[in-house]
Specification:
The protein has 236 residues and is of the alpha+beta class. Helices cover 18% and strands 36% of the residues. It has two domains: 100 residues, Thrombin, subunit H (Beta Barrel); 98 residues, Thrombin, subunit H, CATH 2.40.10. It is globular.
Length: 236
């Protein structure tokens, strides 16, 4: 299966147009309430989600990141910034900062921490508990697929791969989503987007995506905070 997985960082930007959707008529109260909840979660989360662009030997690698500390510490996927000569971070206000990779996890869990110096307090995401995740739960994904910044998609937890420690979802994630959050209906991050299933060598989403459970990320963050001089100076 590994040969059919493709990471969801992107090296290029493409344009596409979607067909207009038919008017579905009157919404019932439950649909309206759910729509309101999703909108509120999106509005709450997007200020803490960033665009990451890394200059690598293979070209421009684009992905997504989550601000986890108000001093400017950002969680993302390691494959977004691996072997990069420089990293640029664009926050929700449109401000652009130079990023520094300060900690990288092993390839299987594909996580990294980068640091920016914004000289102001930044909004942060709320980390959930991936041990409480169950198949069938509604989830949201926010990221920058194909350069379309701040894109929201929704779906469910389709499967939990306990052997490989991955959360599977049908929420659409595509190249550029790597490092972005998978969020539960309570507005908590339960996973970090990593890859999509790619049986036909097509880089687009077919409804099978994978995320690193957030508890793995929390362990990585804790260990990094203890070992990195760059992080210690900001958090102590």
């Amino acid at each position: 299966m590994q040969k059919h997985l493709i990471s969801v960082a992107t090296l290029s930007i493409v344009m596409f147009f979607s067909a207009p959707q038919a008017n579905c008529g009157i919404l019932n109260n439950s649909s309206y309430d759910e729509d309101t909840t999703i909108t509120k979660i999106y509005e709450k989360m997007t200020p803490s989600i960033v665009l990451i662009e890394a200059d690598t030997k293979d070209g421009l690698s684009s992905g997504t990141g989550c601000i986890i500390d108000p001093s400017g510490i950002i969680l993302t996927s390691s494959h977004v910034v691996s072997d990069s000569n420089s990293v640029q971070v664009t926050i929700s206000t449109g401000e652009v900062f130079k990023g520094k990779t300060v900690s990288v996890m092993g390839k299987d869990n594909d996580l990294a921490l980068i640091k920016i110096n914004a000289k102001k307090v930044l909004p942060t995401i709320e980390l959930g508990d991936s041990e409480k995740v169950k198949v069938g739960q509604k989830v949201l994904a926010i990221g920058n697929p194909f350069g379309f910044n701040g894109t929201l998609t929704t779906g469910i937890v389709s499967r939990i791969d306990y052997s490989k420690n991955k959360i599977q979802t049908d929420a659409a994630i595509n190249p550029g989503n790597s490092g972005g959050p998978i969020i539960n209906i309570h507005g908590e991050v339960i996973g970090i987007s990593q890859s999509i299933y790619n049986p036909d060598n097509n880089i687009s989403n077919i409804g099978i995506g994978f995320a690193v459970p957030i508890n793995e990320a929390k362990n990585f963050i804790k260990l990094s905070m203890s070992n990195s001089k760059d992080l210690k100076s900001e958090t102590n």
